[in-house]
Amino acid sequence: MHVTPFAWILTIVVIVALLAFDYFFHVRHAHIPTLKEAAIWSSIYVGLALLFGVAVLIFGGVDMGTEYFAGYVTEKALSVDNLFVFLIIMSSFRVPREDQQKVLLFGIVFSIFARTGFIFLGAALINSFAWVFYFFGLILLITAGNLLRPETEDSHSADNFIIRIAKKFIHTTEQYDGDKLFTVENGKRMMTPMLLVMVAIGGTDLLFALDSIPAIFGLTQNVFVVFTATVFSLMGLRQLYFLLDGLLDRLIYLSYGLAAILAFIGVKLILHALHENNLPFVNSGEPVDVIEISTFVSLGVIIGILVITVIASLASKKGRAQSTIAGARRHAVNYLDLDYTADLAERERMYDRLINEEEQLKKLDPKFKKMVREETALLDLIKRAHGEHDAFLKQN
After folding, report:
1. Reduced DSSP (H G I as helix, E B as strand, rest coil) percent helix, strand, coil of the chain, to 5
2. What burial class does residue 165 get, using C-beta atoms within 10 Å of its C-beta: 0-12 exposed, 13-18 middle, 19+ buried?
3. Which residue ranges does UniProt annotate as crossing the membrane (predicted)?
4. What is the rounded CA–CA span in Å between residue 68 and residue 325?
5. How many CB atoms are closer than 10 A to CB 391?
6. Contact present, 365 and 317 (Cβ < 8 Å)
7. Which of 138, 139, 325, 371 has the highest CB neighbour number within 10 Å of its CB?
């Protein structure tokens, strides 16, 4: 279906208005979102995405609507995996809790610009070269294989090449100055770690785009659908980050589910490439008579894989153990870091979570206790957090 210029302009205006609203009413004044606030606004953004999908279904037809929902669900699932990496980056840079919203919003805006560029580049390549479907399919199969490899926090280290270059040529302070990107220290204008973490988030977004854009092109080649499904999957990601805080570690099988989805779409792309084949060394340049997987079937497979993945993760005892260990370490470190937050209620929330996780650690099955890296160091961290909390109570 041809999308009119008016529909494009209206859609872009709505997206810009939502981003502006997000900044001026939520992010401009630094604060820590409550669980209720994060839940309400996450629901609103998901609701807006679904309403937009219904509009596409009504005005664009069943095929276009199905393509939108398949693309949206896939991109949303990939964005949840991205949140885990964002968590690692912000922990590495010790971003104050109050200022994490601004970093996330920057990441979303940067990602929208970067992915829009990749979308139009991908569309131009597809229209010019049919063999691009082979290339996109191969990328997704390789990515699926990489997701099956065990990962640690070190594999997403914030100290990457871009950051090292930035540190080398720009003087950087050790401390944050609110949410400022630059500050004056000893009479010199210097960059704060806030700018560095934004560079890290932006660089990571570029890498994510290399996977996500081929994935959605495997479901639809309609540029309007690709663009809107991608953008709406990113909207509300900031709120989702705070809503899923502590739950991300529980999604122990998420990487396996995403690997299955990307492999499925990769195979779908290669089958489509064979059906449209014009490469001289494949079947003498003639199309190959193969089955093609419909978008409706793709949507069913994607949703099915995600449902199984989430249920299996939440039911997994290993997942609960992993979440407990990671949460205890993170909350102990954050509680001891006095620069992490100036909000006393947030510090108390962290301490309460730590107490709960400490009790769960004591009850861990011996086979899961082996998952604790540097157990002595973790126990020492928790002990120091108790001491810090006792000292705080005495002062007050």
Report:
1. 75, 0, 20
2. exposed
3. 6-26, 38-62, 68-91, 103-125, 131-148, 195-217, 223-244, 251-273, 293-315
4. 38
5. 10
6. yes
7. 325
- Write down the residue that tokens 């108390």 correspond to: 348
* Distance from C-alpha of 44 to C-alpha of 179, rounded to nearest angstrom: 27
Q: Which pTM does this prediction carry? A: 0.83
Q: Tell me which residue has tokens 């590495």.
A: 92
224 touches 7 (CB < 8 A): yes
- Tens place of pLDDT per residue across the chain (396 aa): 678 899 999 999 999 999 999 888 888 787 888 888 888 999 999 999 999 999 999 999 999 999 999 999 999 998 887 787 787 788 777 888 888 888 888 888 888 988 999 999 988 988 877 788 888 899 899 988 888 876 544 444 445 555 566 666 667 777 777 777 778 877 778 778 887 788 778 777 777 887 788 999 989 999 999 999 999 999 888 888 888 876 777 888 888 999 999 999 999 999 988 888 878 888 788 888 888 888 889 999 999 999 999 999 989 888 888 888 888 888 898 888 877 787 888 888 889 989 999 898 888 888 887 777 777 888 899 999 999 889 888 876
Q: 191: part of which helix (H) or strand (E)?
A: strand 188-191
C-alpha distance from residue 25 to each of 18, 98, 289, 311 (Å): 10, 15, 55, 35
**Amino acid letter for position 330:** R
Which residue is it, tokens 């109570």?
Answer: 393
